[in-house]
Amino acid sequence: MNPIAGHGAAVHIENCGKTFPDGTQALAPASLDIVSGETLVLLGPSGCGKTTMLRIIAGLEQPDAGGCVLFDSNDMTHVPIEQRNVGMVFQSYALFPNMTVADNIGYGLKIRGVDARARAARVAEMVALTNIGGLENRRIDQLSGGQRQRVALARAVAIRPRVLLLDEPLTALDASLRDRLRGELNRLLRSLGITAIYVTHDQAEAMELGDRIVVMRKGAIAQIGTPREVYFKPQSRFVAEFVGAANIVEGPVVEGHLMLPGGRLALAPTADVPKAVAMIRPETIGIVGQGDSPLRGTIDSVSFIGDKQRIVVTGASDRPLAIYAPNTIVAGIGNHVGLSIAPEAIRLLPRED
Amino acid sequence: MRDRLIFIGQLGFTLFVAAFLVVPVILSLSAGVTVNYFRGISSGVTLQWVLQVWDLYAGEILLSFIIALATLAVTLIVGVPAAYALHVRGGKLSRVIEEIITLPLAIPGLAIALALLITYGGFGSFRRSWAFILTGHVIFTMPFMVRSVMAVFGSIDIKTLDEGAASLGASPWRRFCNVIVPNAMPGILAGSLMVVTLSLGEFNLTWMLHTPLTKTLPVGLADAYASMRLEVASAYTLIFFVMIVPLLVAMQMFADEGHKR
User: Fold this and answer.
1) Interface probe, candidates A93, A98, A157, A167, chain B, greatest B C-beta count within 10 A
2) What CATH number did the domain enclosing A260 receive?
3) Which residue of A has its CA nearest to B177?
4) How many domains does chain A have?
5) How far is C-alpha A88 from the geometric centre of its chain's CA atoms?
6) What is the DSSP letter of A20?
7) CA distance A17 to chain B (A)
8) Same domain, A233 and A269
9) Chain B residues with CB inside 8 Å of A87's CB?
10) 20 to 30 Å CA-CA from B135: which of A217, B34, B118, B182?
11) Is B187 a domain residue?
12) Residue that terminates a domain, selected from A199, A222, A240
């Protein structure tokens, strides 16, 4: 048990779906297990049901009949949010404009009947933790976006929640601040060892923060796995394309090789199918001399992005292939090149037709 | 030169329009302190009419304030939670209820009064008490309270604030007291002043609903116009003016305050 955060609960969700009164199904019945102390990220495009899932765990929405939410082994399904002891960080922060920063952070403790001295000590602890010293007596409208985000986090952690719920907490910030706070948040979640459920549509956020990622699509879970599993071993085309950049190629398989317009690709020995759809990450494709390379194409465009170059090659596959190449190699538009792709870098996907 | 002429022309026109509106007010108010209006202000200045009105109508004036404050109390106790519920609940039903609450704005006060008389005229003691007028005033002023509170709720995302407080463990009642009401304060204040001002000045509903024993300030005013010397009626206007203007000024100040925030 962490002295600052308290004990994080294991969360067990069973068969939780959500159908709104107008009949639209926001979430198909789904089950999830979240280990105590784990950071689980719900990732997906807007409308995928990730926020609905979070709100069911929070107690802001009731699951359809048959759904069940457990914290450790306590059934929370019909417990209202105010008795669940969850800390919640909202996208809009939901800080109280009628209170100072310190009063906001201490509000949950005040509700719990913590006396003024213990409250002040805990608020000071949270202020130090989230690095907002000197702002205690400010009003909320006197804070910048990044400061508000920290106050919201401090307020949610102050009550030693059993589960910390974060609903797109960085989305309202501009890009550079978002990157910095993402790093801070990551360190904080690790050091607190709190059970956290984090909703985002940003795959970079999901990768950095998640112990595991739940990729969601159209109200259903598409895949659950560690960031590496989700990135390298997507189980569907949707996951492959949503998490990071992906080239999708398809063609017949002949003697362990995927046949493409620009040549052929050796597959890992296990693959034994007549036709295949495969994903290849742009950074796993190497550009080599034409020589005797089995797959060839023509450079269509080169974009220099600083830390790498994005090269698009046509002719190798039905669709242009995107390649992330080192920023040092010289590639000329119109050059004919060979492509080297290791068999392990080719991930076969189930066909979806 | 040309700019100057345009400016003088505009200034002149503005002053003319202002005078057109303000002069009747001044004449009416000055009549209330003139010894004899037909001989003009040269006949002397006196407070006797004002005192006479106070002697004759102190009861009406007092009752007006009682009714205005009672109306305020009811619209606060019912209107603020109603606005909260309508806002948080949302949906079609809420919109229908909001429309129904707003309806009295569009219906002539006389029609509301008539409906009340037809329905409750038979309940003698209710009909004869000032609670009958209070009922009319509450119906008439409720939309102003509900609307101005809802306008604030709409501008501060009260639903998320409420959820935030709930996540921290606050019961619905504590949320309402600690978060909802303080943040709705600008709307509540604006609504309150509007309700009090409207209730004090309300005539056509009240005129239909009043009995000889339950007259309010504006009804007394009509009375005085109809049956007293012009100076007395004007003195009455003066008293009314003195009472209502500070309320209007306060209302404006709160409105400015609201914009600044």
Assistant:
1) A98
2) 2.40.50.140
3) A98
4) 2
5) 17
6) -
7) 21
8) no
9) 167
10) B182
11) yes
12) A240
The residue of chain A nearest to residue B156, with distances taken between CA atoms, is A97
**CA–CA separation, B138 and A39 (whole Å):** 54
Query: Do residues B140 and B205 make contact, with C-beta atoms less than 8 angstroms apart?
Result: yes
CATH number of A23's domain = 3.40.50.300
> Average pLDDT of chain A?
89
* Inter-chain CB proximity B160 and A80 less than 8 Å: no
Assess if residue A245 is contained within a domain: no
Token pair recorded at residue A169: 């907490």
CATH number at residue B105: 1.10.3720.10
**pLDDT digit string (tens) for A260-271?**
998 888 888 776
Q: Which of A78-87, B111-120, B208-217 has the highest mean pLDDT?
A: A78-87
Q: Among all residues of chain B, which has the CA nearest to that of A107?
A: B168
Structure tokens at B245: 């203007």
CB contact under 8 A, B169 and A90: no
DSSP 8-class letter at A139: B
For residue B199, give its domain range: 50-260
Tokens of B183: 């943040």
**Other C-beta atoms within 10 Å of A130: how many?**
23
Report d(CA B136, CA B147) in Å as an integer: 18
Residue that is last in its domain, among A206, A240, A274: A240
B203 — pLDDT class (breaks 50, 70, 90): confident
B26 band by pLDDT with thresholds 50, 70 and 90: confident
- Chain A residues near residue B167 by CB distance under 8 angstroms: 58, 81-82, 86-88, 156, 165
Task: Indicate whether A2 belongs to any domain.
Answer: no
Range of the domain at A325: 250-349
Q: What is the pTM of this model?
A: 0.79
**How does pLDDT run across A24-51, given as a tens digit for each residue?**
889 999 999 999 989 999 999 988 999 9
DSSP A136: T
B22 lies in some domain: no
How many cross-chain Cβ pairs, A to B, lie less than 8 Å apart? 62
| Structure-block tokens of residue B23 | 């002069």
pLDDT tens digit sequence for A326-346: 988 888 888 899 999 988 899
Predicted local confidence at residue A139, as pLDDT: 92
Residue A353 predicted with pLDDT over 60: no
Are A31 and A14 contacting, i.e. CB atoms less than 8 angstroms apart? Answer: yes
Same domain, A190 and A257: no
